[in-house]
Specification:
The protein contains 19 helices and 15 strands. It has 537 residues and is an alpha+beta fold. The longest helix has 34 residues, at 117-150. It comes from Halalkalibacter kiskunsagensis.
């Protein structure tokens, strides 16, 4: 099951019976993929790595400087080892050469008797070529057995176990929410293994290999193999590639089956969202989905993905899987559905009603911290959470208010931003008024003189009016927050009294003006505000 032969295996062959390892004994497990006979000094550009070099030393002829240069080139080119025939060209190996080889674990082997290099190359090359044929056979055999396993397995761990048994290495599968070790590693050693994977030190002996498990361009896991007693070979990497492909196919099948089941529920979910199911029907449905499931009411969350590429189409599989796991961790049972360009989540509450909003807020906070823009190819995501209902048969009420909340997201000022319907307060009233009457006309009835004044004189009366009302009519506090002197503040208040009337701070009129200021910002964000005509003040 390998396309290489190690130096320690080569030393057991008949042409090496009288050979002596004089340096680099710690590197005898190095892989050899080819054998070269070399008598030139400038060798670096001629090597690809993993070659065993045979030489008589003719190139350096007892010149230690040339010898060291030759050795360093072999080490830098990741050659596997050096075999030297002791002759008139090379009779003594300097201690400095031995020291360098030991430091780099680079084997140096001496032939004290004359050997036929051609016989050595023929012998080792025949072994390597036969192993190449055997590797192809073994690889095909592994692929066939793995494909057969795919038809029978129920869990990805069975693939990992089959993979580990075949290669006899440590296997680590890094999933988003789980790390699987095959074979299992004691708890105190797991961190050491993970640190080793993270650092993945680059050394001539490659003991770690990794490959992502990707589905539709998204990485769902990473498969890592670690060898402690040998260098990983091309065969190991090919087997790793076949296994990651099989693992991706298995995960895709699981996702497909799960998503197909969910898609079959879309029609039922749509009727639920439209209010066509009774409490009895809903209880029967939940009993089929998960026996013993008890929900304390629920709420609907609508989502809209804003793509960075306008030509993108909505494929919410990854998003649904991601947001589902976050919601579930906060104590919600999640039902999902896609309707046109929106993704709808019905969140059944499994915990106490008092904490539903806090838990859902924590879920949004966690999602916002994730770097989802690259994986989803979206610039941002809008959410709208409807009214909480204690009866699941009233979920259509939550859905209706969730859609309204989602529509309002683009019109909210920064101060009024919220995903929750119950936080929108006056924005819901403004939206309703705007649908049935001319909201701008009402706003201008109260604020037109102030707005016109600001447009004509580039003033800041609207800003002053907002802050003055927010400070409950305190001139001193308003001046401080606007960073103006008190005299300027008095002048602006006098102008506001002239334009709005001296009674603009009376309770009813003040309430109306505060509402109109909020409506004014609302119209600005929706771009429904028409430029007012400036009159002589």
């Amino acid at each position: 099951m390998k396309s290489y032969i190690t130096i320690s295996e080569i030393l057991k062959r008949r042409h090496f019976e009288s050979a002596e390892v004089i340096a680099g004994a710690a590197g005898l497990n190095r892989n050899v993929k080819w054998v070269h006979v070399v008598e030139v000094i400038n060798i670096k550009k001629l090597l690809n790595g993993h070659e065993l070099i045979l030489t008589t030393g003719l190139g350096w002829k007892e010149n230690q400087t040339l010898f060291i240069s030759f050795l360093n080139q072999l080490i830098e080119s990741h050659a596997s080892g050096l075999c030297i025939e002791v002759s008139s060209h090379t009779s003594i190996i300097p201690q400095e050469i031995i020291d360098v080889a030991n430091i780099h674990q680079f084997p140096i082997i001496l032939f004290h008797q004359e050997v036929a290099f051609v016989q050595i190359t023929q012998d080792i090359h025949s072994v390597l070529i036969n192993q190449q044929y055997q590797m192809i056979t073994d690889l095909e055999n592994y692929s066939q057995r793995l494909n057969k396993q795919l038809l029978e397995i129920n869990h990805q761990e069975e693939i990992l176990l089959f993979f580990q048994t075949f290669l006899d290495v440590q296997v680590v599968a890094l999933f988003d929410e789980e790390i699987v070790f095959i074979p299992e590693v004691p708890a105190n050693e797991r961190r050491l293994v993970l640190d080793k994977i993270k650092t993945d030190e680059h050394s001539p002996i490659h003991s770690i290999a990794r490959q992502p498990v990707q589905i539709s361009g998204n990485q769902f896991a990473e498969l890592v193999i670690i060898s402690t007693n040998r260098e990983l070979s091309e065969f190991d990497l090919l087997i790793l590639d076949r296994t990651t492909t099989a693992l991706a196919q298995h995960l895709l099948r699981v996702l497909y089956v799960e998503e197909k089941r969910r898609m079959e529920e879309v029609e039922w979910m749509t009727d639920w969202l439209d209010g066509h199911h009774s409490s009895v029907n809903i209880r029967e449905y939940l009993a089929d989905v998960e026996p013993g499931l008890k929900l304390n009411g629920g709420v609907v969350c609508t989502c809209k993905l804003h793509f960075t590429d306008q030509s993108s189409t909505l494929d919410g599989t990854y998003f649904i899987l991601l947001i589902r796991s976050i919601f579930e961790q906060q104590g919600f049972y999640v039902f999902s559905s896609k309707i046109r360009n929106q993704i709808i989540f019905i969140l059944g509450n499994k915990r106490t009603v008092k904490t539903w909003k806090t838990r859902l807020s924590e879920a949004f906070t966690r999602f916002e911290k994730l770097d989802y823009s690259q994986k989803l190819k979206v610039s941002f995501i809008s959410f709208g959470v409807g009214k909480y209902v204690t009866k699941l048969s009233d979920i259509h009420i939550s859905y209706k208010t969730a859609k309204e909340t989602l529509l309002l997201q683009d019109t909210l000022t920064q101060e009024g931003k919220s995903y929750f319907y119950e936080d929108l307060h006056l924005y819901r009233i403004m939206s309703l008024i705007n649908k049935h009457t001319d909201l701008q006309e009402i706003v201008m009835e109260y604020l037109q003189p102030v707005i016109a004044y600001d447009q004509k004189y580039n003033g800041k009366l609207v800003e002053t009016l907002k802050m003055y009302l927010a400070c409950n009519g305190s001139k001193q506090e308003t001046a401080k927050k606007l960073f103006v002197v008190r005299q300027t503040m008095y002048h602006r208040i006098e102008k506001l009294e002239t334009l709005l009337g001296s009674d603009f701070m009376s309770s009813e009129k003040r309430l109306a003006i505060e509402f109109m200021l909020l409506a004014y910002d609302y119209l600005n964000t929706t771009e429904d505000l028409v430029q007012v005509s400036v009159k002589e003040i």
